[in-house]
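Late entry, evening session. Most of the bench is empty. Finally got around to the prediction I had been postponing all week. Sequence below, unchanged from the version circulated by S.P.
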Amino acid sequence: MRRVALVAVAALLIACGGREAADDQGLHKGIQDNTSGAEVTFDATVLTDPVESGGHERFEVKTSTGETLEVDHNTTLAESVPVHKGDGVVIHGQLYIDPGPRYGVHCTHAHTSGGCPNPGWIEYNNNYYE
C-alpha cells in the first residue's frame, strides 16, 4: 500500500511539473507586509498586452486578491509569453516594491543569478515560460 501511495505522489508531481501551487493570500500578505524579495506564486489576469523594453517583457496583471502588479519578464533568459489583455496566468517569481509604492514581480525565469537566486516561471495556456 505504501509503495502505491509513493507512486501516486510521484505521478502527481510529474503531471504538475513539481511546481509551486498558487498562494494568492501569501502574495497579498507579502504586499501588506512590504516584503520585497519574497518568493511568490499567484493567479492573475493580464491587464495590458506585453511591451518589450530593454530585454524585458513588461505587462500589468491583477491578482485574485485585487492588487495590480507589473510583471518584469527577462526575455534574454526566457522565452516571451504570448499573453494578451484578459488572459489568465499563474506566476512564480520574486516580489519587488518600488517607491510609490509600486508592486511587481521579476525573476520569472529558470536561469538563476545573484539577484534571482530561485528559478521562476509563468504558466499560460498549460505551457510554462521560464
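Two things to note before I forget:
Confidence is low (pLDDT under 50) at residues 1-16.
The domain at 20-129 is CATH 2.40.50.140 (OB fold (Dihydrolipoamide Acetyltransferase, E2P)).
Will write this up properly tomorrow.
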